[in-house]
Backbone:
């Protein structure tokens, strides 16, 4: 169950990153409220997951999910650029996440 909490916390990190962008510096109410709610829920689920998952593993995977997810959301919904260097960076992040998960078994 802790891994599910961690996965959901990572997805919520993607949500708050995207809605923070949509809030235009917290000047739009609904995206701002979603951002703050998703942040609180994400941090809480991360804390719950850390009860059993080691700090280094949980935090690395949480931030990795957020980073890769925000990258994909940026490309898909915000027309951010795609180039070889950015794709290689994401591959390296995912590789690190897989290694971190494997090393915590």
Residues:
């Amino acid at each position: 169950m802790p891994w599910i909490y961690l996965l959901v916390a990572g997805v919520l990190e993607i949500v708050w990153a995207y809605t923070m962008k949509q809030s235009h510096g917290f000047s739009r109410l609904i995206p701002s409220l979603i951002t703050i709610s998703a942040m609180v829920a994400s941090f809480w689920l991360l804390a719950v997951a850390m009860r059993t998952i080691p700090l280094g593993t949980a935090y690395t995977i949480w931030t990795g999910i957020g980073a890769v997810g925000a990258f994909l959301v940026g490309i898909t919904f915000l027309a951010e650029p795609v180039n070889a260097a950015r794709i290689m960076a994401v591959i390296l992040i995912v590789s690190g996440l897989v290694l971190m998960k494997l090393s915590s078994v």
In short: The chain is about 80% helix and 0% strand. The chain has a mean pLDDT of 94. The chain has one domain: 2-103.
